């Protein structure tokens, strides 16, 4: 068992995906975890999973992690601050400035509160979806403010490091503007694009490939949760969407008459701008390395993908990323394997020698 930086006990309020994952990660380091939730069923499941014990009178937590829906986060944090006057409290909601403002407005003791946000999650929610390693290698923002001392805030840093996440310091407003750009607006764009499929002909949907799945994957997210998130971060999201609408208008104008002078140049510039933007996204481990994609055809039989991945390992090439495309009705899938450019030719040749069909 790896030694923990925290002393404990840690009280986790909210036994959903994030809360139970926090609890499981801390329990794996031997930290005592106290579980609380408005749903007795969620608590019972989390306890059965080994995430901690049920809250009891006389508990004296060192740290409290509030993992409840955004629209009740401020009120729950305020209640925890009042009930446990010796504890440091954090929350893991995806919006930070509004919660801090609400706590200050309610007269809560924010000298013992600092908001945080792990940028990690899964398509499924609830305690059964929780994982002890959910936060490993993921960014976890600490939204610092002047009312809390560095010494008190150190418990949050210890929590983040114990769970294997990467600590990122931002102000609450910097955080909210940042997640509006990299999370909230993409959710809106993906959802609106996916709405186009409602009345689309079945013949068109039958052409679905990996591109449209990439663009719309997050459209399957929980609408109730996103109504809360977008309402709490409405101003920065709206600002970005207005600028995005301007970009779309320019593109639409150029397509109105593709033969007009300058129209094709304008389309090319907008598309090239997308290339430039994508190049700025950090890759694996936060680096800006670009990878080469080797596309391998995989028969639709049990164990074939596992065999491919095992043979990539035998060849001695590090797999940087993997994407699988498998359209309905096809007896073969396409595994897009991302590797360093200098390894691509060797991987292609050795996979071909082993009988794999290389598609690109």
UniProtKB/TrEMBL annotation:
Keywords noted in UniProt: Amino-acid biosynthesis, Aromatic amino acid biosynthesis, NAD, Oxidoreductase, Tyrosine biosynthesis
Gene3D superfamilies: 3.30.70.260, 6-phosphogluconate dehydrogenase C-terminal like domain, NAD(P)-binding Rossmann-like Domain
Pathway given in the UniProt record: Amino-acid biosynthesis; L-tyrosine biosynthesis; (4-hydroxyphenyl)pyruvate from prephenate (NAD(+) route): step 1/1
Sequence ranges assigned to domain Prephenate/arogenate dehydrogenase in this UniProt record: 8-285
Residue span, ACT domain: 293-360
Catalytic activity line of the entry: prephenate + NAD(+) = 3-(4-hydroxyphenyl)pyruvate + CO2 + NADH
GO BP annotations, alphabetical order: tyrosine biosynthetic process
Pfam families, A to Z: PDH_C (PF20463), PDH_N (PF02153)
InterPro entries: 6-PGluconate_DH-like_C_sf, ACT-like_dom_sf, ACT_dom, NAD(P)-bd_dom_sf, PDH_C, PDH_N, Preph/Arog_dehydrog, Prephen_DH
Molecular function GO labels: NAD+ binding; prephenate dehydrogenase (NAD+) activity; prephenate dehydrogenase (NADP+) activity
Keyword NAD applies: yes
The EC number(s) this enzyme carries: 1.3.1.12
Family affiliation: Belongs to the prephenate/arogenate dehydrogenase family.
Protein name: Prephenate dehydrogenase
Organism: Agromyces ramosus
